[in-house]
């Protein structure tokens, strides 16, 4: 009987934790965009180039800071948008800017690549509804 009670309690806690994922509201009319490079740009392969992030109608706050209508940037490189109700991965295709950065330097190997921005809340979870830029394509030569 105690084991069943424990399992019910654990399931309830897990459901409550999942219900909170992706529940940070985004501001109406928010616009997130990549200011540079432009879609279709050609960059030098294996050489750092600047990527700067644009955001309107929301503010930027570091990871761990929970303040209304704020979040921080994540740059997706050659990756689709991740699930809306889960923490954004952190790897070479999902770069986190949890200190509130609004630009970065990246380098890409030769070829065609996609770049897209996604805002994350204080816990690296996308807002509801998600705030993301248009996906752009750059070619590294």
From TrEMBL:
It comes from Noviherbaspirillum suwonense. This is DUF4399 domain-containing protein. InterPro entries: DUF4399 (IPR025512). Residues 51-140 form the DUF4399 domain. Pfam families: DUF4399. Residues 1-21 form the signal peptide. Keywords: Signal. It comes from the Bacteria.
